[in-house]
Write a structure and sequence with these properties.
single chain, 395 residues, alpha/beta, Aspartate Aminotransferase, domain 1, Aspartate Aminotransferase, domain 2, seven-stranded mixed β-sheet, four-stranded antiparallel β-sheet, 41% helix, globular, binds 4'-deoxy-4'-aminopyridoxal-5'-phosphate, binds glutamic acid
């Protein structure tokens, strides 16, 4: 049969992060001692009170469809977090709850982007952004940030890419994969650009609770004048160690956008799972001390992995301000000729040392690999030691 696949499906790249996680699990199931730096998910169990809330919901018989965009109780819980965390006020029809923040972003791009609309994405970027923009028939416009500037975007470079087709500025601070937290002065300049060029801002704030060194965090929507043009995306996956529950959400005062994204959801997945919604209510409204406890552990691991990398001949990393990824520069090892891009490097590490990491290519840089430090200190030490051994072989 000819042309079995749509053009869209044929050109779509599978998620590199999920592919590595799958590979890591497969090797582990074969009894291979893999050190996994692949998966971008907390390794902690979901806090007990959240699991209990899920069980209670099942026992109450809450096993039916909920409203498409999420149960009112959950929308209220989301609204309460925005108010308490950022003094941002939203109404229930300004919130859409979806099956993970990834789904929120997907619905959102489908709702606001199409017909060659341009979306500015700062590189290195999360692997799914350009693909989702492509799926919406938009055009991802990549703006490089530089390692020597600590991956902090240059607003002048952003502005140089803006033209009448530019519709969205996509932000992700703290960033996956670099961990950079955009400084306030840069955020202010980006806000001024959004205003000047009348751009919609999509701010993916999924790592907002994983910020280190006592730095403070503000939602982009809380910047002066930005609330009405910013659509905030967040979720419970990272903050509450709830990746498998699949609950994410978006907030926007543009009720028209929220309604359109909800309609898209109504024709695809319907509501997110009822049990997961009940768990998310408990996460968002319950005690927040576990969040801080996990954050502190991530910060210690961040310090450890950065120290270990810095003590490794030829490897370097910009210390991440947040999230749980180290975006490690491996360029010096291309000189030996045995590996010449990030996929070859990731393959070499996996095959020779059983270390799983994600190649930088799908994040927009062939000179890097991404190591997730959502893993124990012991495995961080063991894994970096193995990477050093591999690097010695590469000369
Ligand atoms: N945005 C970023 C930057 C991410 O790293 C992730 C990773 N999971 C997501 C969104 C989506 O998270 P989820 O769908 O699990 O809520
Ligand atoms: N976001 C995580 C990561 O970057 C989980 C996998 C995914 O959804 O991409 O590893």
């Amino acid at each position: 049969m000819k042309n079995l696949l749509s053009k869209r499906a044929a050109s779509l790249k599978p998620s590199a992060t999920l592919a590595i996680s799958a590979k890591e699990k497969e090797l582990k199931s074969q009894g291979i001692d893999v050190v996994g730096f692949g998966a971008g998910e907390p390794d902690f169990p979901t806090p007990g009170h959240i699991r209990e809330a899920a069980k209670r919901s099942l026992d109450r018989g809450e096993t039916f469809y909920t409203p498409v965009g999420g149960a009112l109780e959950l929308k209220k819980a989301v609204i309460r977090r925005f108010k308490e965390d950022y003094n941002l006020e939203y109404k229930p029809d300004e919130i859409l709850v979806s099956c993970g923040a990834k789904h929120s972003l997907y619905n959102l791009f489908q709702a606001v982007v199409g017909n060659g609309d341009e979306v500015i994405i700062l590189a290195p970027y999360w692997v799914s952004y350009p693909e989702m923009v492509d799926l919406a028939e938009g055009v991802p416009v990549i703006v490089q940030t530089r390692e020597e500037n600590r991956w902090i975007p240059d607003p002048d470079e952003v502005e140089s890419k803006i033209n009448p087709r530019t519709k969205v500025l996509l932000l992700n601070s703290p960033s996956n994969p670099s961990g950079v937290l955009y400084p306030t002065r840069v955020l202010e300049r980006l806000a001024a650009l959004a205003e000047k060029h009348d751009l919609l801002v999509i701010s993916d704030e999924i790592y907002d609770k994983l910020v280190y060194d006592g730095q403070s965090y503000t939602s982009f929507a809380a910047m002066p004048g930005m609330k009405n043009r910013t659509i905030v995306v967040n979720g419970v996956s990272k903050t509450y160690a709830m990746t498998g529950f699949r609950i994410g959400y978006l907030a926007s005062t543009q009720a028209e956008v929220v309604k359109a994204a909800t309609n898209i959801q109504s024709q695809s997945t319907s509501n997110p799972t009822s049990t997961a919604q009940a768990a998310a209510v408990a996460a968002l409204t319950g005690p927040q001390d576990e969040v801080e406890r996990m954050r502190q552990i991530f910060e210690k691991r961040r310090d450890l992995i950065v120290r270990e990398i810095e003590n490794s001949e030829g490897l370097s990393v910009v210390k991440p301000d947040g999230a749980f990824y180290a975006f490690v520069n491996i360029r010096p090892f291309y000189r030996g000729g045995k590996v010449s891009d990030s996929s070859e490097m990731a393959k070499f590490l996996l095959e020779t040392q059983h270390v799983a990491c994600v190649p930088g290519g799908p994040f927009g840089s062939e000179d890097h690999v991404r190591l997730s430090f959502a893993t124990s200190e012991e495995l961080i030490i063991k894994g970096i030691e193995r990477i050093r051994t591999a690097c010695r072989e590469l000369g």
